[in-house]
Amino acid sequence: MRILLSDGSGLTSRQCAALLSRAGHVVEALSPDPLCICAFTRHVRRVHRVPAFGDDPFGWLEAALAAYTTGDFDVLLPTQEQVAVLSRAADRLQGLGVATAVPPFAALAMVQDKVSAFATLDRLGLPQPPSAIITSAQEWAAWHDFPAYLKTPIGTATSGVRRLDGPGDLSDPGWPAEDGLLVQREVPGPLVMVQSVFAAGELVAFHTCLRTGQGARGGASHKRGVELPAVREHVRELGGALGWHGALSADVILGEQGPVFIDINPRLVEPMNALLSGVDLVSPLLHLARGRPPTPQPPGTPGVATHQLLLAVLGAAQHSERRSAVLGEFVAATLHRRGYAHSKEELTAGFDSRSALLLALALGATLARPASWRWFASGSVAAYALSPAGWRHILEHQPAGRDRATSLWPLAPAKVGEITPGVHE
């Protein structure tokens, strides 16, 4: 098949490209950046230039549809936050014959922003850290549970998230906060990346992996697959209640009292560890896009370790700001030591000269100037991250005729006034 990835700038897209290409598909991608990560791999035949998605999602959509139509593609696969506008325009895509897999828009709106996601999890009784929605200085003054994290409704790759050790760490955010801010007490424990695929509310694929190494901007440079039946049941309940269709991901902390959800992502996230563990997250999405029932995936084999050296090198530069740490990371990977022992590379498995070139550029740049990690990391996020203004634009958009996707879900996105501010255990 000919497959067009909605994004060419993120690690998820890069991993999808590799596994799809190895399966015999022709892969192309969309990106505003001609030097995006998908341009540095033999697995992507072409990168189509499109407007940046964040502030103008419908401008991006028009360019995406033009590329899809003229390129005679079989599937438009959402691999980043573009799923939000694709879901909103589901009726139009169907009318144009665009094959894709997206959730009903009203279901997506229940988890797209952090305030609505918190409210949705709370209504379902799913575990979260002690939390509150803050809309005023008075409500903020009533919060005394530190350390904590303050989160804006819309934010990607740690943007919009601040760690607070005490009330003095918060400068005036400009109260009142019209859309509300989410504050959550810090829960010590390892972070787990949760990945799933649903078909009309039925769970068909599921995988969890520990983040065993932290790369640039909080990304997972190292992972190890784990088996967490309780988290599986929580996700099954969430996707079933929403009537979810497509990919659904989450971040979970394994605290002393059990797992707690700290973030929901209505999209696919880095599927390679799952695939190497025996769980194919991408093939079910292709089946859904083409209107075919996907084959349920068996549970994965726990314990499979993987890494992304590119992310680890950038993370070493960010966290240490020392050339010796960057070089040490590369040497450890070359000699299969530390976290690289018995671990498989997610991005550069097999010979891929263009991918090796990107790694060499990142290594050389950070060895010369560690602060250059920002250029590599920030550019990718800026290409696909949805901005608050872009999300408002999507919410306010009125599709032509009745939006079939929205009509499948009877509830509207949570409003701040509908949530009782306070601590939710």
Report on this structure.
The protein has 425 residues and is α/β, with parallel strands linked by helices. It folds into 4 domains: 2-103, Rossmann fold, CATH 3.40.50.20; 130-186, Dna Ligase, domain 1, CATH 3.30.1490; 188-304, ATP-grasp fold, B domain (D-amino Acid Aminotransferase, Chain A, domain 1, 2-Layer Sandwich), CATH 3.30.470.20; 307-384, no CATH class. The chain is 36% helix and 20% strand. It has helices at 11-22, 57-70, 83-88, 90-95, 105-109, 114-124, 137-141, 229-242, 272-276, 282-289, 309-320, 323-334, 353-368, 373-384, 388-396, 404-407; strands at residues 2-5, 26-31, 46-49, 75-77, 131-134, 148-151, 161-164, 181-185, 191-199, 202-214, 220-226, 246-255, 258-265, 305-307, 343-345. The strands form 3 sheets. A 7-stranded mixed beta sheet has the order 13-12-9-10-11-14-15. It has a 4-stranded parallel beta sheet with strand order 3-2-1-4, with helices on both faces. Strand 10 (202-214) and strand 11 form a beta hairpin. Helix 11 packs across helix 14 (373-384) and helix 12 packs antiparallel against helix 13. The longest helix is centred in the C-terminal third of the chain and has 16 residues, at 353-368. The protein is globular, with a radius of gyration of 21 Å. The chain starts with a strand and ends in an 18-residue tail after the last helix. Residues 402-425 have low confidence and may be disordered.
List the helices and strands and how they pair.
Elements: E1 2-5, H1 11-22, E2 26-31, E3 46-49, H2 57-70, E4 75-77, H3 83-88, H4 90-95, H5 105-109, H6 114-124, E5 131-134, H7 137-141, E6 148-151, E7 161-164, E8 181-185, E9 191-199, E10 202-214, E11 220-226, H8 229-242, E12 246-255, E13 258-265, H9 272-276, H10 282-289, E14 305-307, H11 309-320, H12 323-334, E15 343-345, H13 353-368, H14 373-384, H15 388-396, H16 404-407
Helix pairs in contact: 11-12, 11-13, 11-14, 12-13
